[in-house]
Amino acid sequence: MDILTIANLKRAATVGRVEAIIHGQVDSLTRKETRDQKPFWEVVLGDAESKITLRAWSDSPAFSECEQMARGEFLEVTGEFVHNGAFGTDARRWTGRRLGENERQALLAGPAELRDRQNADYELITRTVESLGDPRLRTLAQNFLGDWGERFRRTAAARNYHHARRGGLVEHTAQMMRSAEAIAAVYPRLNRDLLISGVLFHDCGKLWENVLPENGFNMPYTETGELLGHIPVGIELVNSLWRKIDFTPWAGLEPASEEVRLHLLHLIAAHHGEKQFGSPVDPKTPEAVALHYIDNLDAKMEMFAAGYETAQQLAPGIFERVRPLPGNIVLPLAKFVTGPA
Amino acid sequence: MDILTIANLKRAATVGRVEAIIHGQVDSLTRKETRDQKPFWEVVLGDAESKITLRAWSDSPAFSECEQMARGEFLEVTGEFVHNGAFGTDARRWTGRRLGENERQALLAGPAELRDRQNADYELITRTVESLGDPRLRTLAQNFLGDWGERFRRTAAARNYHHARRGGLVEHTAQMMRSAEAIAAVYPRLNRDLLISGVLFHDCGKLWENVLPENGFNMPYTETGELLGHIPVGIELVNSLWRKIDFTPWAGLEPASEEVRLHLLHLIAAHHGEKQFGSPVDPKTPEAVALHYIDNLDAKMEMFAAGYETAQQLAPGIFERVRPLPGNIVLPLAKFVTGPA
Amino acid sequence: MDILTIANLKRAATVGRVEAIIHGQVDSLTRKETRDQKPFWEVVLGDAESKITLRAWSDSPAFSECEQMARGEFLEVTGEFVHNGAFGTDARRWTGRRLGENERQALLAGPAELRDRQNADYELITRTVESLGDPRLRTLAQNFLGDWGERFRRTAAARNYHHARRGGLVEHTAQMMRSAEAIAAVYPRLNRDLLISGVLFHDCGKLWENVLPENGFNMPYTETGELLGHIPVGIELVNSLWRKIDFTPWAGLEPASEEVRLHLLHLIAAHHGEKQFGSPVDPKTPEAVALHYIDNLDAKMEMFAAGYETAQQLAPGIFERVRPLPGNIVLPLAKFVTGPA
Amino acid sequence: MDILTIANLKRAATVGRVEAIIHGQVDSLTRKETRDQKPFWEVVLGDAESKITLRAWSDSPAFSECEQMARGEFLEVTGEFVHNGAFGTDARRWTGRRLGENERQALLAGPAELRDRQNADYELITRTVESLGDPRLRTLAQNFLGDWGERFRRTAAARNYHHARRGGLVEHTAQMMRSAEAIAAVYPRLNRDLLISGVLFHDCGKLWENVLPENGFNMPYTETGELLGHIPVGIELVNSLWRKIDFTPWAGLEPASEEVRLHLLHLIAAHHGEKQFGSPVDPKTPEAVALHYIDNLDAKMEMFAAGYETAQQLAPGIFERVRPLPGNIVLPLAKFVTGPA
Amino acid sequence: MDILTIANLKRAATVGRVEAIIHGQVDSLTRKETRDQKPFWEVVLGDAESKITLRAWSDSPAFSECEQMARGEFLEVTGEFVHNGAFGTDARRWTGRRLGENERQALLAGPAELRDRQNADYELITRTVESLGDPRLRTLAQNFLGDWGERFRRTAAARNYHHARRGGLVEHTAQMMRSAEAIAAVYPRLNRDLLISGVLFHDCGKLWENVLPENGFNMPYTETGELLGHIPVGIELVNSLWRKIDFTPWAGLEPASEEVRLHLLHLIAAHHGEKQFGSPVDPKTPEAVALHYIDNLDAKMEMFAAGYETAQQLAPGIFERVRPLPGNIVLPLAKFVTGPA
Amino acid sequence: MDILTIANLKRAATVGRVEAIIHGQVDSLTRKETRDQKPFWEVVLGDAESKITLRAWSDSPAFSECEQMARGEFLEVTGEFVHNGAFGTDARRWTGRRLGENERQALLAGPAELRDRQNADYELITRTVESLGDPRLRTLAQNFLGDWGERFRRTAAARNYHHARRGGLVEHTAQMMRSAEAIAAVYPRLNRDLLISGVLFHDCGKLWENVLPENGFNMPYTETGELLGHIPVGIELVNSLWRKIDFTPWAGLEPASEEVRLHLLHLIAAHHGEKQFGSPVDPKTPEAVALHYIDNLDAKMEMFAAGYETAQQLAPGIFERVRPLPGNIVLPLAKFVTGPA
Questions:
Q1: What is the average pLDDT value for chain A, to the nearest integer?
Q2: Of all helices (H) and strands (E), which one includes residue F138?
Q3: Read out DSSP for C126-192?
Q4: Contact at CB, C317 and E227, closer than 8 angstroms
Q5: Closest Cα of chain F to A164: distance in Å?
Q6: Three-state SS for E46?
Q7: Are the CB atoms for A14 and A205 separated by under 8 Å?
Q8: Beta-sheet pairing, D39-46 with D18-33
């Protein structure tokens, strides 16, 4: 029997009954009672990308196992899984056991393919930062990676909708950097250093809004996130990093350092593109506009990719709306491979 | 004395009084009367990019010249030009003479720099079309350039706001193709052939909405443009080109030709991104979303570029709002050139 | 025991337990399992106007019948039906049998009263088309009925909300024609020929968006409908019919044929009344505005009629909101019949 | 020389210089000074449909005439009139004289054609009211015409945009009655008595918002109109008329009188169709929805008719936007007159 | 065992199983059947502030009790209560008995604390009304309390969202009066008499929209409320009270009585602040604007207070969105009590 | 002849020709030319509250005076002033002279009444700050007044619309403090210390957006204001003040200092009430909501006060719309003074 990620298990179960093993952390654990007053346990198990709800009935072996469990523990669950319409995926005849330390570390690290991709993405971010020409922006960005890199790598790009997984912000940022390089080459008037820095920092406030803990998978709500939101927090972070830099070696540089700081903060402040979407200021420079489109393009590309995997198919190639996309979605035109001239 | 384009003349006049020569076509010619009942002539003169209003008072030599002029004629005007606040640029002590045939052709061809840029852009479009892998899209695109290329090159990208000049649609399309190539490289799942074709055809309906005549500079209003708008007209044009293609050589190709046609039409239909901006359908594929952002990005980049040239400066680096941008605009951060590590 | 339509059965069941027979087609058929792992079958049955979900438990005779059924089959179901709150109408002690060919044809034809009404409506459309004065519009409309009449008669006016049944588009179109005749008499400047033609063609794109199959009741999703929407498809259909007409007999007619075509296409393009509702162009002629109101009026009248039948009653004469109406609805004031002066 | 209405004079002047006589009332009279400190008089003259501004320079005979004039007086003005672009129509070499009593009465009565049309419209309203079947609604409507008919006939349908002239509300109401009769015949479930009554009363609050004085042409602003608006004022008027009716003869009638009153008030309250347009309640009955469309249709038809007369022509058949219509407008397709079958 | 209000019972049950007694009125009583066809009764019981749904299974003593119950009866229910997630609070092993007359009166009077608070609030309203300086507004307000006070005290301030309980409108009005007094002191130009009167009458139309019956807890829907809404009904009520006042003693008072009436009606008409929220007219005086903010402030304060009690906690101090508030809510900063200077 | 402020001069000139003296600073100075090519000077003169444009014709004594003037100089202008419709107030026969140092200081200090009012308001702010119970908020607020008080007193509350004058922010803040005290007394659950601090700091970012220079009246545009806007700048200022405070004496205080900081920043971030108005986060605490209404109430009260002084009167008591108010405005009901009971 294979060890599946929870996301893969759910995908498999949409096709038919699956016998499988999953690893996850106990997100919540509640003793409940049926209408006719038989007790049962409800366990929510999560991993790097997804969650599943298990139920242990009073006459099952899992029931007594649940009596011993605690929230936050790491489990292996073995059982039969079936898709059950609106109720999602149900587990049958399941049993659980605690994970060993190595298994726990492996789970926390995420599936290998995802980890490799995120490592490569982080690598790209690091290299791109080193390539920044302006020593002030380069130093700022390097200090960010130095001081906050670990936290960055545990942060999701959003709570829902797109890249909503540990490390999702790294993936989103790396892809946006690729886009920004490409667009800066097409529009040579754009300040590439500034644009790349804007990509790096645009969502850095999410390190306090969508971060996952070091040892778990549950994205908490925080007063910082709720009361300020990631744009003001991001501005505060950049200002805090900026204050720690010694600018004396670069005293006479053009443009002036204060100009650099203001334009970078503007990119953070304006990246939602319109006030109604939470930017306290409209985009007022070409770089701010470009950053906004680069951000939205990547978010939408990811929503489509996720939609094709999870949305209900209405007809061949047609899928039900996945919010926040505006309507049903359609499979892309297959690529043309070879053909007569 | 130099021959200036009208746009350059206006720019120069904002700084101070200018003696200059301009070439243009008579857009309108009206005999009027002052409040105290002295007659004068009002002449609107246009060239490839701009327009200017001249007034000839009854006691000036230009007055009798105006008596001989007709709408549509091509003139050289020599005079002194001053910027006059809300009234725009005024001409003083001006005289006119009819252009010779060579001068007329030169004027119609546009300023050399603009013409060279548009030629290079058209070249790029042609080359990119040749590189399309799918023979159906390639043939369609080549037939479009073959059948409608001349008209394409006389079309503006819009009536106002951005690229609102003869050939503006070629510039806009070429720049979008560069962007589309770049983005397709960053998102390899995107169907590059389709996306490039979408760029070529997305505004092709404007050949009936924003086209300038062969021998003049006045963009007419047409019932086709008003009653249908460029999206339905563009769909109709692609369908008409499609019907003329012989698909028999490509009978078994994947994806099916009808699929190719529908996806291309979708890109035209959805490129405004939202129904409220005139798309009859929301974008439902990744290519449709990408095309929308590529289009908007280029339009906005051009609005900024024009805004820095024409908007009133409110403070160093700050300019008054230029619609449809949402607020004041700010000069980009100057690029960092060299500096200590 | 009576044979009821599914809609009538549901209406009856809201009052109390009903013993009844229904005829329908198997829309879907799924074997499921209860929480305590007993198998059951879930069958969705549809007819011309409505759908019902039946469940067959493992200890019932229907269970083994379900083992033999297939999607698309036509059934008679006999049983007891009860309304079960949010769960809709449940069937008890039901049994099924396959319909004979005659029964199947009768079911596909729809309930007699509906069929008669739709036949009368189609008759009216045909007669009105014959009365068109302009031979080009008359020929176009007659060709449409000739080429596409059968498909037209199987098309719904919408997927939800109003006239969402086989033949619903015929009902909607006929009623709009009655309205258009009436309004054209009140506003004699309106071009009645154009307005009537606009009514006929305004939703003709729905023949590819909301059509029901010849032999069933399930409205499929199609790439044509999703990628273009019924407005561009309708324009394409009219253009295709137009190209097949030989205009030589009418060469000198006023207004010119191209004018006629553009104005008719405008009515299709603008009939949603505003861009935000999916029209690529705003209404720019009186006929376009009139068509929009005639369309909306009929849709709303049908929504009220349906609302009074299906919405939950909140108090005597007051019903809960039925989307897309904006709020609760109220029974109309009863008509005054006779009374003292 | 002809006596022209001001509207006709303005129309004529768009073509070229006109010598003409106009009659009007002095709306305002102001002594001003030019930049170089010469005095002049500015006189605004109005008639039933339009207004014009005249200027009398210090060296003209009109200047001393102005010294004798007073606001509210009725004048005949003889002069030359020219269209002067954005400044409107200018008068040259004009002189004025006071109108005699008969001339004054003729002017107040309005141009004969308009008066005849409004008389016929009022006639239709009266006849339609007599045809109401429900004696309560008939009595209410007759009392309205009896008590407030004169004021009704002096009321405009709006301050701008449509039917913005003395008697305009009568024209608008009559045309809506024709529409309502036609629509009620098409939708027999509609309560025709209620719908007709709704048409009569829907804008009756405008008798306090858009009424013109008995002896003049200036529509005043009132606190009643500003602080309540015509919907609450209309409700108040119907309630006041209702209280004066003796309902005892109709004690047992169905539907109950209170029902009748509520449904009629609903039609007034909901006729703007949406809260954002000033209705305190959404339409909740079919009659309320029908009334809203009938109202909007007539307003839009009138805006088009006015637009074709006053808007600037952009190209043959195409006119610049006239607010509140959403965009440019296009001449309707000419009617087909006779032709081969 | 304690007698709890239903709201308190629900609050207690979120923590754990509760044995309790509740008093309430039978809101509805329905005999249903389980999927496996065993009968059960569903009883909805309501009190002054809340509702609960009880189920009596066929093998329970409550089942036969239900057979004897009728809608509208008053019951004592004794049982065990458990919170059951999305299904709300379930009752176990419950039995019921009819309330005696005294118990019924006590229940209708509401919980003592609520009753005392509402009595104090009504007292404040009465005193404030007596303090009005303008004898016309004072008389109007006193007549309102005299004629409609009892009904006022049975009215909720809304159907949902805030103060949605018997007497809620008294609480809302009293608190707004406190606010209005405070604001009028800060802005001395405000007409305090008018503002206080506006507070008293702004929602008086709700006496026909959100009133609870004398002997029960179910807020009915009425045609008056649906067809007019509380703003027109409130205007009608004030007009009706106004007509009954003899103004002769105050004939010469300034400002004129008609002015007073119009400004008061404006406050009712405009208190929703914008047309889109149902005001037929925008606020046009400082008092109208102040009333709008005072109203919204109190509604929002009550929504927060209710939200902290009922919304799901997402993290310490953070609660899930409670509509119509715009997002998650956060506990206020605790007050600082004592500390070093 | 009196020395008038520019605002008072303009008010006086609406009534008739005024001979007066004004003091102001030269805001701009431009040599222009008439259509017939005579030179003239255009001088914009400003004082604490308003601006006026003067023109000096070539044959006037002022002309040669202008030749000697420079931008930024302080002048006394003596002349005749007349209101000239849309062109505003014109000066006739004017002469100018430079102000002495004392006159300059007096002008910069503003009119005595305004200065006194602003001094009293600043006094109130200082006293209220001293009354804050929480030593952290008190210290923060005192440091703000100590470090930035002078700048605060030179700042306007907005660029247009309300309190758009030197010191306007002090007036706005003081009046909001009065309101906040009053509302906190009515809603005792509100955290008064936090609310008062929120009032003080809510617009403190405007010290970099709407500040006037020490020696002049021209509000400059700044990159800080444009690129960040006053909300992020205000957050940055509070954070900067916060960092300078030594919190060790208050180590154990409840609530924790970080909580205090977050809630205060939330009040700044959310005070625009909705994202569409530029708040990066919705109000999530009762204090944030209360602050928003207190802010808007004061802004609107000031807009009405200004509107009654400057807007065109349409009828007695009715004035034309003054943006951003939503429509025409009406004079408040006069207060009732004394009268019979």
A1: 92
A2: helix F135-153
A3: HHHHHT-SSHHHHHHHHHHHHHHHHHHHTB-S-SSSSS-STTHHHHHHHHHHHHHHHHHHHSTTS-H
A4: no
A5: 21
A6: strand
A7: no
A8: antiparallel
The residue among D36, D16, D52 whose CA lies nearest residue B36 is: D36
Summarize pLDDT for D17-54 with one digit per residue, the tens.
889 999 999 988 888 876 666 788 989 999 888 889 99
The nearest alpha carbon in chain A to E55 belongs to A35
Partner-chain residue, chosen from B133, B327, B333, that has the shortest CB–CB distance to A282? B327
Residue showing tokens 């991993």:
A47
- Residue C262 to residue B228, Cβ atoms within 8 A: yes
F33 vs B328: CB contact, 8 Å cut-off? no
Task: Let me know: does A40 contact A55? Beta carbons within 8 Å.
Answer: yes
* Interchain pair A317, C223: CB under 8 A: yes
Backbone angles phi, psi at C222, to 5 degrees: -130, 150
Question: What is the C-alpha separation between B209 and B237, in angstroms, rounded?
Answer: 13
Helix axes A257-270, A192-201, angle to 10 degrees: 50
Dihedral sign, Cα of residue B183, residue B184, residue B188, residue B189: positive
CA-to-CA dists, residue B247 to B148, B250, B252, B256, C223, angstroms: 21, 5, 10, 11, 21
Q: Tell how strand A51-57 and strand F39-46 pair up.
A: unpaired
- Asked if D235 and D271 touch (Cβ cutoff 8 Å), the reply is no
Q: Which of C227, C275, C285 sits opposite B266 (nearest CB)?
A: C227
Q: Do E330 and A227 touch (CB under 8 A)?
A: yes
CB atoms within 10 A of CB B164: 17
Q: Tell me which amino acid residue E116 is.
A: D
Residue E73 to residue E26: CA distance in whole angstroms: 5
Q: Is the ipTM of this complex over 0.95?
A: no
**Residue F67: in which H helix or E strand, if any?**
helix F61-68
The two structure tokens encoding residue F169: 């922010």
Residues of F in contact with B92 (CB under 8 A): 37
Rounded Cα distance, A52 and A45, in Å: 5
D128-186: pLDDT as tens digits: 999 999 999 999 999 999 999 999 999 999 988 788 888 999 999 999 999 999 999 99
Per the CB < 8 A criterion, the answer to whether C89 and C5 are in contact is no
d(CA B321, CA B310): 11
The stretch E265-283 carries a mean pLDDT of 97
Using a threshold of 3 CB pairs under 8 A, tell whether chains F and E touch.
yes
Amino acid at C86: A
User: A169 near A209, Cβ under 8 Å?
Assistant: no
| C-alpha span between B212 and F235 (Å, rounded) | 52
Which residues of chain F have a CB within 8 Å of the CB of E297? 183, 289-290, 293
Cross-chain residue pair F178–E191, CB shorter than 8 Å: no
For A58, nearest residue in chain C (alpha carbons): C36
Shortest CB distance from B263 goes to which of A133, A290, A333?
Answer: A333
Q: At what angle do helices C230-243 and C135-153 cross, to 10 degrees?
A: 130
The answer to whether C254 contacts D336, with C-beta atoms less than 8 Å apart, is: yes
Name the CA radius of gyration of chain B, rounded.
23
The answer to whether A198 touches A268, Cβ cutoff 8 Å, is yes
B-D contacts at Cβ under 8 angstroms: 20
Give the helix, strand, coil percentages of chain E, each rounded to 5: 50, 20, 35
A30, closest residue in chain E (CA to CA): E85
* Min Cα separation E223/chain C (Å): 7
How far does C131 lie from chain E, in Å, by closest CA? 43
What are the pLDDT digits (tens) for C96-110? 999 999 999 989 888
pTM here? 0.93
pLDDT tens, residue by residue, E100-122 = 999 999 898 888 889 999 999 99
